[in-house]
């Protein structure tokens, strides 16, 4: 048994040793203050020797190296891998202002020398650290008043990639929260994000949990968290101002005991700190006079075309597919005009977007499918599609063109026009002897023979009544068939019921203290309701489009604000804690109330 275990472990270590390459990395904070002590850590996934440090004369080397080893085991598809990491840590102290580069270190593994990555560390001026206020002070009533949180200790701002742009040119807007390192953030109480009026917006996906990183701003070091990333496309020229927005943060602050009998563990209190951004202005220039084939595209694009087939008959339909690839306002590009011969029957084009929203902007493709059918035989030319876009980098228009296609159309069969005639067969018009009785030629007296129901009032009542019932059932069937075919209408009718079902799921999560699932379920209920009720695709849902659509339907502004506020509370509750069970229960009741009132108002409109 022991032999089998040792053999198994040997195989695992052998697989792990050959599966991974050598990874040798260096890590340290990217910004520190003069006099700050910080860690410089080298990590490697194989046991090495002869670690050679680079020149560290710009810093004071206080201690090191301290070594540590960590091991982790991972099993994927029945294959187990053991990963081991070796770390070498040094304690350094910054001694002068400036930006300093630490060149790569070297280490030897298996007879080969490996180099780490280089690093740049920015050292800024900083005030000397304050002495601990609790040293050598009597207990009594001398509780230290907490230091006030100033406007430079915590603030929020919008970082823009550009401030001078053309109409339709994309801008990356990042909402950042700046906090002094000695101000621990524990959550949010109230969040009001910018509305970005005058812009078409597309959100960039960011991690649900805020990750604070060190950053130098105005020559000071802050812990910075990204709250939201958005791509903005200005829809009007001139000066557009993004109005201030506010966030209420929950900050933990250390307090001093007033006496020996105070709660020993009650060393902190939570403060509510409201921070408000400053207005930000963007100068939007109008586009130069556009060429004839400009369809609103601003960015950098290319175009290609493909046709389904070139040899067809008059009964066949042809699809011409135009694909626009590139970076820019893909969702806002109108369908290019396709000029076809007058003898073609043309259908409405179908457009499909396949876009990605990243920190580099919106990119991807837009595909337009043109469906048409030639009515007559002959040879036709499908002309090239001309497409012009404005390139903000070169500040000029670029015109692209697809290739032409030659279409050879043969005469199709006449089966469609002769369908009704050909459906009659000779057997259908044969006379059967029993159809008409023999005409008697002698004098025959006619007289009434018994009672007949035909022609009576009862006969006509039953005849017209059954006809009316049949017609009514047929109309009901047609109405249901149309409703089932109209997906948007069916989604609209079922929106409230589906949303209530999702809210009940959220209630179950709330009872089980599954906080993240609770907020996600409320978000699904609200976004799903808006998508189904307003007929907006989930991918195109954002606060601005929702607010504009609800306002166009004359929904009360107060109700719109409540609706948006609940969405914002749920989104930020996933980043950090935002209250206890009572707060979640109150949020659930508000969600039910707002959903019910919204449904009533939409029905009335």
TrEMBL record:
Pfam families on file: BatD
Biased composition (Low complexity): 125-143
UniProt keyword terms in alphabetical order: Membrane, Transmembrane, Transmembrane helix
Matches recorded under InterPro entries: BatD
Renumbered residue ranges of the record's region Disordered: 125-146
Segments crossing the lipid bilayer: 451-477
Name of the protein in question: BatD
